[in-house]
Amino acid sequence: MKHPAFRYLFGPVPSRRFRRSLGIDLTPHKTCSLDCVFCQLGRTPQKTLERKAYVPTADVIDEIDHWLQTDGDADYLTLSGSGEPTLHADFGRVLAFLRDRPIPSVLLTNGTLLTLPDVREAAALADVVKVSLSAWDQKSFEWVNRPHRMLAFESVMDGLNQFRDGFDGRLWLEVFLLSGLNAMARDVEKIASLSRELKPDRVHLNTVVRPPAEDFAVAVPMTQLEALCDVFDPPAQIAAGFNSQRSTAIQANEATILAMLRRRPCKIEHIEAAFGMHINEVSKYLGALLKKDQIRSDWKNQAVYYAAK
Ligand code: SF4
Question: pTM of the prediction?
Fold first, then answer.
C-alpha cells in the first residue's frame, strides 16, 4: 500500500544503528539549541531553547496511528528529523502513545534540554535514548556544537548524568569526531572519560559522511575511528557509513522520496536501499522531481547528493 502524504512521518529510512527506522519529525526545519559544524541539515538559522508545540501533537499522533494500522513495518519509531525533538513541549505525549506498541521507540537528542526535570521525565518514556557527546569542556563545545549562548557544558553534562541515573531503558551515546577538531587521541580520551561516568549501554563513533554545515568539518579516516573504539567502555561501534540490513520493498512515490530529501540530502543508493527499489525506478522519480524544480543535485565529497529545494 502506498503511503499517504504524511506531514510528520518520513521513511522508514535505513540506518546502521536503527536498521529501518520510521522518523517522526516534531519541529520545523533546523529548530535546534545547537549549530553543530557537522550538521547534515546545514546551519541553524536561529538557535533556540524555547519549548512549545511546534507542530500539532494530535495530528502527529493521528499520523502515527494511521501508519501503524496501514503499514506498521519498521524496526524502530524514531523521534528525530529536522531539529531537536525535546524542544517540542509535548514530545512526551508522543512517546507515551508509542509505549507498549510492538515497535520500540527511540529518542535522538542532543541532550541539552535534559537539564530540565520535565524533559528528563518525558525522555524516560522512550525505549532507547540516543544522546550526543562530541566535546569535553565549554571551549570544545563551542567549536564543535556552537551552542545557544545560555548553554553551559557543565550543566549539560550534569543533566545527562541525572537522566542516566533515573532512566532504566537503553542509553546509547553518539560521539561525532572531526579531523583537526576533536579527534586527537588525548581529546577522545577526555570524551571517553565523561562517557564512562554516563555508563551508556552502547557507544557509536560517527564522522562526516554527508555534506556538513561547514566545509572545515572533515571526516576522520575509518582506520583512525577503528583505532579509537577501545578507548570507550563499552568499546565503541562505528556508526559512520551506510548500511541497509533489510531490503523489504516499501512502496515509494515522488511524495515519499521528496519527504525523505526534505530531512536530509541523500545519494541515489540511499534512496534505493530505503525503499528497496531498483535504481532505474529511483532515477525516474528523481528525474521528475528535478524537472519540477522541487529538488536539486549537489556534487560533494566525490558523490552526487539530492536535496529538497
Ligand atoms: S546535528 Fe543535531 S544537534 Fe547538531 S545542529 Fe544538527 S540537528 Fe542540532
Answer: 0.80
